[in-house]
């Protein structure tokens, strides 16, 4: 009733709400509603909530602030969510995302709310979900041990998938809290390290299909990427030239995707050998020194005869069939094992995540954002580069 009266006054003469004592109640209700969806909302999500609030109740806008009066409400909501999480922790509310970041679980010198906070950072929808109703760590551990026997049986994919889905929360708790080595985790969860289950795990975490989305968006961007790459000059153009020459030849769809990915890495100013370890069939490379790579074994005609994913010096996933599929499955493993992107390939993996898989595509680094704008403007805009400045303008049509 108070807000309704305020809105009527705002519509009548533009007067704003002048009773800050009601703000606490508004923020409390907002925090409760947000918590049903996410314990750690991003800044963009908080902005969306504030904009919805001010659209519904324009009398709450604040004079003299930017972003149509959202700045003050954003700060209030940010502080309220932090206080709301602390209150739930004190009340021992069962929520894995809060429990794992409680101060009592941190080392004595790191007992600060913002220190080593474990929360979604790559648009994970189910970063650390609660256990299914009626399940506990002990019951899910028994399911995990049963899975060790199930993976040894043939034609058992349905039962394995059901048990993997039921133990998802237990597996995520282990991954996020303990950060186990990939080889050790494979011994405990061998069912995860196959193509089908990596795709399913990625879908459980993000709710989107992995390979279908990756390949579709990569193929969709391919014509524009080729145009941008051919327009590139300097040393990068020289490095890309052999790959671009290959594109003019008749290639299979898998070879074309591989060529585009390798060219994209060079276009972003990174090195393709940081992601791909190429070797011949009769002289395989030593994999023990590789942290995160794709091993591509070439035959006599230089076409790949085997593609494997290497993680922490171990061949974690052999037989990927194609390089592009290996890239998509590598993204699935990164999400499933909560791995960090390699610093030398940070732009490549951010493009995979934000432009190809379209996860958290609104928050982009300058380089990735520039590529996105160029992809959007490749046909409809003229791109003029003057030193370090990029000017975007519509095509002049006669």
Q: How would you explain this protein's 3D organization?
A:
The protein is of the alpha+beta class and 398 residues long. Helix content is 52%, strand content 9%. It has 16 helices and six strands. It has helices at residues 2-13, 23-35, 43-56, 71-90, 96-99, 137-150, 157-166, 168-178, 182-188, 195-206, 210-231, 234-247, 253-267, 323-337, 346-356, 366-377; strands spanning 276-280, 292-298, 304-311, 314-317, 381-386, 389-394. The strands form two sheets. A four-stranded mixed β-sheet has the order 1-2-3-4. Strands 5-6 form a two-stranded antiparallel ribbon. Strand 3 and strand 4 form a beta hairpin. The chain is globular. The N and C termini lie far apart (58 Å).
**Overall 3D geometry?**
globular
Topology order in helix (H) and strand (E) letters:
HHHHHHHHHHHHHEEEEHHHEE
Number of strands: 6
Report the total helices.
Answer: 16
Strand content: 5-15%
Query: pLDDT below 50 for ≥5 consecutive residues: which ranges?
Result: 380-398
Could you tell me the radius of gyration in angstroms?
25 Å
Task: Describe the largest sheet.
Answer: 4 strands, mixed
User: Termini, distance in Å?
Assistant: 58 Å
Mean pLDDT rating = 88
Strand order of the largest sheet: 1-2-3-4
- Structural class, by secondary structure, is alpha+beta
């Amino acid at each position: 009733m108070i807000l309704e009266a305020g809105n009527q006054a705002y519509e009548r003469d533009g007067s704003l709400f002048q009773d800050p004592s009601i703000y606490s109640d508004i923020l409390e209700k907002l925090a409760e509603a947000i918590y049903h969806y996410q314990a750690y909302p991003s800044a963009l999500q908080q902005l969306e909530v504030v904009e919805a609030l001010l659209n519904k109740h324009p009398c709450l806008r604040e004079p003299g602030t930017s972003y149509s009066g959202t700045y003050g409400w954003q700060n209030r909501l940010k502080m309220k969510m932090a206080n709301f999480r602390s209150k739930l922790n004190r009340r021992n509310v069962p929520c894995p995302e809060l429990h794992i970041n409680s101060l009592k679980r941190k080392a004595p010198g790191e007992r600060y709310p913002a220190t080593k906070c474990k929360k979604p950072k790559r648009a994970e929808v189910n970063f650390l979900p609660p256990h299914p109703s009626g399940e506990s760590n002990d019951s899910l551990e028994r399911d995990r041990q049963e899975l060790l026997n199930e993976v040894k049986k043939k034609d058992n994919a349905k039962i394995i998938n059901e048990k993997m889905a039921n133990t998802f929360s237990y597996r995520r708790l282990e991954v996020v809290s303990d950060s186990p080595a990939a080889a050790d985790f494979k011994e405990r969860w061998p069912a995860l390290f196959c193509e089908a289950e990596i795709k399913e795990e990625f879908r459980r975490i993000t709710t989107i299909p992995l390979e279908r989305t990756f390949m579709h968006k990569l193929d969709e961007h391919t014509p524009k990427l080729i145009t941008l790459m051919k327009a590139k000059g300097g040393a990068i153009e020289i490095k890309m030239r052999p790959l671009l020459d290959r594109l003019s030849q008749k290639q299979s769809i898998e070879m074309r995707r591989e060529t585009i990915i390798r060219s994209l890495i060079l276009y972003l100013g990174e090195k393709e050998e940081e992601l791909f370890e190429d070797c011949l069939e009769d002289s395989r490379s030593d994999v023990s020194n590789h942290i995160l790579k794709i091993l591509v074994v070439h035959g006599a005609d230089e076409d790949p005869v085997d593609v494997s994913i290497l993680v922490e010096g171990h061949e974690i996933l052999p037989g990927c069939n194609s390089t592009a599929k290996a890239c998509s499955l590598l993204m699935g493993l990164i999400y499933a094992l909560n791995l960090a992107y390699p610093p030398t390939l940070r732009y490549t993996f951010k493009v995979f995540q934000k432009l190809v898989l379209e996860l958290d595509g609104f928050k982009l680094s300058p380089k990735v954002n520039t590529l996105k704008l160029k992809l959007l403007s490749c046909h409809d805009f003229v791109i003029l580069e003057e030193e370090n400045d990029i000017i975007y303008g519509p095509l002049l049509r006669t």
